[in-house]
Amino acid sequence: MVLKCLFGCIGRSSRNTSVLTGTNADEKRRHKTTAEPQSKEAFVESQRLSDSSDSVASSLPSRRKAPITALCVVAKHTYGIAADIPYPSIDTSDEVLIRTHAVGLNPIDWKSVDYNFCMPSFPWIGGRELAGTVEEVGSNVKELKVGDRVWASTYYRDRRAGTFQEFCVVPQHTVLPLPPRLSFDAGACLGVAALTAAMTLWKWLHVTVPISFSEAHTTAASAGPRHILIWGGSTVTGQFAIQLARHSGLSVIAVTSEKTATLAARLGAEHVITRDHRTNDEIAAAVRAIAEDDLTLAIDIVGNTTGACCLTALSTTRPGVLAPLAFLKDAEVIPQNVSIAPVEMKRFIIEDGNRLYAEALNRLVGSGVVTVPEVEVLHGGLQRVEEGLQTLKRGDLSGRKLVVRIA
């Protein structure tokens, strides 16, 4: 089957493809390095050298296990199911091996394949969030044990960490206990959208992390309303952002479609502006009618044109901050009183101190204060991931989160 995209025709293969993969790829390649095919012989040699390397893993028990199955990107724009992926090994004493039960699907998953980025080499294994059970731990891992139910957020630089496989290996600080009230399917929503919303608010917008729901609202009542604009409030990230902002003491102005306006209001948005039959400039004017010249915080989850309109909605006299999760145009003119939040979710992986935001998120979800979106589960394992990504790409999920059940 041949699909059309912005860059022309791309080949798509649904047939099973046998591939041989090594462990970590070149960690020094930059974020947008274009992947180039490697020969099977090169991967075999890479695996041999990796297996013989001197590392902390040499002190860990070595257990040879049967190969596993993964959904791989085997060449540009081409997927393939591989049943001969080497069983992933724990290479440092701070790593955790997880059996994958459910994976969340995210726009970055299909965009990285369509536009050929975040894949250091071929074949590569994608996927950035999962819920599952702990299968093995390194010697420095003290708070997790075999059999624990967990969720995790991962990073594209390590092939072992791709979640579109039966087992994956990740650093221990990226693994959180799955709240007892949550299923694996619900837990697979937390590693990207929920964590992005939490870190955007608490780390990059410098909103105070709530110790308790009552404390946040007592503080907000005494100080008066502080507004935040969330453009794209019915997206999965937007749904988490609305709830977290509200429970952090903010008054939320959400922009959604008419179809999802009641959803945003139910989650805690005090004001909901529907985008149907309105221009972006008219929406920005409606925001200013609510917040006047006092809006100092904004999150855009839609695109560079809506991000630009967020800039016009922000205060012209007070310092403001915009978190453009969908990015701004390079030539966008930024008002002098506005700063752009440098949102980079890789910081969760490469800076272990950011775990505190995931822990705060986990407490709110575990207590039921923050709820997960409606989940649409695709059954059938890794074979359903590509289909799910195409559904996600078409859009119009009305706020539902796509999850694939692996085991």
Automatic annotation (TrEMBL):
SUPFAM superfamilies: GroES-like (SSF50129), NAD(P)-binding Rossmann-fold domains (SSF51735). Residues 76-404 form the Enoyl reductase (ER) domain. The keyword Lipid metabolism does not apply. Residues 18-59 are annotated as: Disordered. The keyword Oxidoreductase applies. Gene3D superfamilies: Medium-chain alcohol dehydrogenases, catalytic domain (3.90.180.10), NAD(P)-binding Rossmann-like Domain (3.40.50.720). Keywords: Oxidoreductase. One of its GO terms (molecular function) is oxidoreductase activity, acting on NAD(P)H. Monomer. Belongs to the zinc-containing alcohol dehydrogenase family. This is Enoyl reductase (ER) domain-containing protein.
